[in-house]
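Dear support,

I submitted the protein below through the web form. The confirmation email said the job was done, but the results page showed an empty box. After a refresh the structure appeared. I'm attaching both so you can tell me whether what I see now is the final result or a partial one.
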Amino acid sequence: MYYETIKVFDCTIRDGGLVNKHQFSLEFVRRLYQLLNAAGIDYMEIGYKNSPELFDPKEYGPWKFCEDDLLWRVKEGFDAKTKLSVMADVGRVNMDAIKPRSESPYDMVRVASYVKNIDKGISLVNAFSELGYETAINIMAISRDRGPELDEALEQIEKECKANVVYIVDSFGYFYQEDIDECVKRYRSHIKSRSLGFHGHNNQQLAFSNTIQAIMNRVDYLDCTVSGIGRGAGNCTTELLLGFLKNPKYDIRPVLDAISELFVPLSKEYEWGYIIPQMISGMLNLHPEDAIKVRKTAEKDDYRAFYEKMVNAGLV
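What the results page shows now:
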């Protein structure tokens, strides 16, 4: 599938950091950056821009904070075209510590916001935009927030927000292809002057097919992770996406090297990807933490009991 406007947005380190509390080594991240650049990936989201005053650096690794000095070290020695991106959560970033884009190692900032906090999300996007960054706003958990408030939020984004990209985010891996069609149509009815992006989760093994559906709807920014790493069921895999796109600017071979060299060993330490508890949480439109918690109990393989517990708790 060849559209010139498509951008492949690899979230491996940012989303994968939710698996290991952002404890990747600098060598690991530098090697992945080298390989993603060789693969022609457009953006690498390297972590969160969170304030160390809000999270304990002894508990979380450096990619939770993405200090500028660290990111310069990632890029050091590379003549790389792949742009770096960071994610900023509403209420978790100290804007006084943010330098202008001209003095920064990263190019894009994506702001994650729920519909209920859209005013704050827009304000944060605009603050980064005024500093010269490319920006995106990721509207989270829309599978559980598809009422008129979403339309109002989209209308507000179109009128007030300086984001270059507006993201459809299937936070719980609940959507099917027809949901993607409906979301794109709905977003475009309000968003007239920005690109759209899609970020899917793999709870029902649909992250890849839903991403394809987004492509068919001419969504430009496509999120993925190497080997699908991410919290819970993980994400659309970078390797599958590149294989589908068949775009001459991308080369799947460096991504396969990354899997062999970096992620096969890592998979022996950490669990991610499709498993039955995450399938159940996706089917029931629940946060992946519900399934993650059950994986830490003695009854972690009693899938029927987990299903009954979630249904009987009135969470659906």
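Response: this is the final, complete result; the empty box was a page-load delay. The mean pLDDT is 93.
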